[in-house]
Amino acid sequence: MPGPGELDNAGSPETAPPDVSQATDQVAPPADEHRAPNIPPRIGAYRPFKILGEGGMGVVYEAEQVRPKRIVALKVIRSILITPPLVRRFEFEAEILGRLQHPGIAQIYEAGTADSGSGPQPYFAMELVRGPRLDRYAADKRLSTSQRIDLLIRLCEAVQYAHQRGVIHRDLKPGNILVDESGQPKILDFGVARVTDADVQAASIQPTSTGVLLGTLQYMAPEQARGDIREVDAATDVYALGVIAYELFGGRPPYILSKHSLPEAVRVICDEEPDRLSTINRSLRGDLETIVRKALAKEKDRRYPTATDFAADLRRYQNHEPITARPPTLPYQVAKFASRNRAFSIALISFIAMIVGFAIITSLQAYRIREEQKRTLAQKKEAQDANAQSVAVNQFVQSMLKSVNPAEAQGKDPTVRQVLDIASKRVEQSPSTQPLVDAAIHYTIGDTYYALGLAKQAEPHFKKALDIQRQIKGADDRGALVSQNMLAATMTGLGKYREAEPLARDALARSRKALGGDHPDTIVAANDLAILLTNLGKFDESETLQREVIEQQTRLLGPDHPDVLFAVTGLSFVLTRQGKDADAEKFLRDAIPRIKRVKGETHPDTLTAEFALAVSLQRTNRLEEAMPIVRDVLERRRRVLGEDHPDTLETTSHYGFMLMGTGNAEEGIALQRRVLERRRQLLGDDHPATIASMTRVAQVISSNPANAAEAETLYRDALARQEKLMGPNHPGTIRGADRLAAFLDQQSKSDEANKLREKFGMPKKPSTQSASRPATQP
User: Fold this and answer.
1) Domain 134-328's class?
2) Is 171 in the active site?
3) Which of 292, 310, 474, 535 has a CA that sits 20 to 30 A from residue 626's CA?
4) Which CATH superfamily is domain 32-126 in?
5) Roughly how many angstroms between the first and final C-alpha of the chain, as a whole number?
6) What pLDDT is recorded for position 343?
């Protein structure tokens, strides 16, 4: 027998459509001659071999990516719906959605267009999730109510993550949610509906031949069903989560719409209340029923304002705490208190029999009610502010998309960078009347610039966001702390290490005090400070901090969480800089297969880890092992990040050194010169990366006597700039002085070389001794 609040029947609802989302069995790609006739042989770099699902908008294939070789889910837009504005918006939207990195959201690997023979064919390549759809998972596993609540909470967290980044799903339903083998629900097609709504306003309540509902009216909030797109925001997704919750607990949707015409179905959604869950299952009567009812409210302002608030009430229900979905009356508070404290409640009954005890308890409960009301009001205000900011950011992203329209782009085909530049000017020239909304928009622009490797453009936006948040919310506000940490990280990317250090240390100290040591934002701040300390040459402190971060994240998230694996990569860089190459290699060889499994072959984190391994191998003169890794990483970084991304340029530089070591001096020198030229143009001469390139060009050309004068000039210029930037005691400065001294020895200028060593506290060397570093190492 199920306990209180448990479901009597965990069977799947008969009204659920067939599971056509993604296959649960591993299928090997068939040979081309055995391919079904209705499946194209190739779409871009992908070989589709199985149809996973079809709908009015397009087809989802299971496909093999040629390079890197892996199986993906490939969503293709139907050619009949394609227009040039749709293609441009589709591609730009992919850039935004590709930045959604959350365990509860199926990752988008790539988006692009292929030549279909009749014009461009837009597609999304995304993570292929092996698992059943949400409702079938719950039914097959016969999950208890508590376990179903846990699934819902995870869904709410994923939805809120996207909302905070300005992305509204608008098509949440069990068929768009798969549960993997670990029990993690993953939302598919996150945000894709938002791209297509402007071009296709079709909705149907009848299933297609494969069982997928077009427009999925069953899960639409009233404002969405009415077609009022301006009213669609985060609360619309909350409603859809409410429908999903109703189905999970009740075994059927709140409305059976298949018997109605489209206008009548819309009227039902907008005007009629669904049956209470307790009429389906009496054990659901009470708080859980009230929570779901609030999520399904017809009026947006009566729903939970955010998915976080929905999840918070579900957690309160799990913990036998008062929920916010009903007034906290005295009997209700007492009942909840008794549920949490059964032993104490027995003693409490005895006290209630006494007049004095009754008065004390009454006063105590009244105080608790007042405090709870204060907390509820504060939480509601915070939630309303967060929702307003989420809506504003979403509208802002929509305006960025709109700028891609040829009518507004004045005939140009703008890149993501150009659209960002337009948006940056717009927010500066036309600020809103709500400063916190402006702060959220500035943060979004800064975050997007930063993700594209444009730290210089990101910095002023993070500064502006931080100034506004500090002025209104105070320096210890969570949003202010996140902005402060991102500003410090951006300054690190710009080489402003000494300016960034006090900012990063302060952000970490405040986060620990305001949020706690185990809060995700605090751990991110600690990890970012460790990266900065590595660049400052404070390796011991950086290693200690990195190990603390890894221990915390492993304890809280598990060993295979993406954040844990990212921190392991960071630790490997510290170990390499300390000369602990064997330790670094051990960590990386263990982490890289897990990163690939979690993130995919082309994710920037995967490429960073593989590059770190190659650097470790390079430093131990294992060029035969390192070179193919670097060459492969370079090819993927060029394709994924672009030629001028900082990570691509650094990989190019290391590849140039390796070419020198294999006898391809001419090509190696050409690559080093190109990297130096691009860094000077993009970053300026005083950026640490540019200074490093000056030294590297000097290293690779110095073996040719004809280049001696140029090499010496570069060595001296790099050392002067490094000393000015980081001071005379920084390891990078000492290293630069040592390289210049070694070069002077080679040029028979040993006296000058020893004066240089004396200045920087290095031991003098006999005039016949040379200490030049091989040109195969940077």
Assistant:
1) mainly alpha
2) yes
3) 535
4) Phosphorylase Kinase; domain 1 (3.30.200.20)
5) 69
6) 47
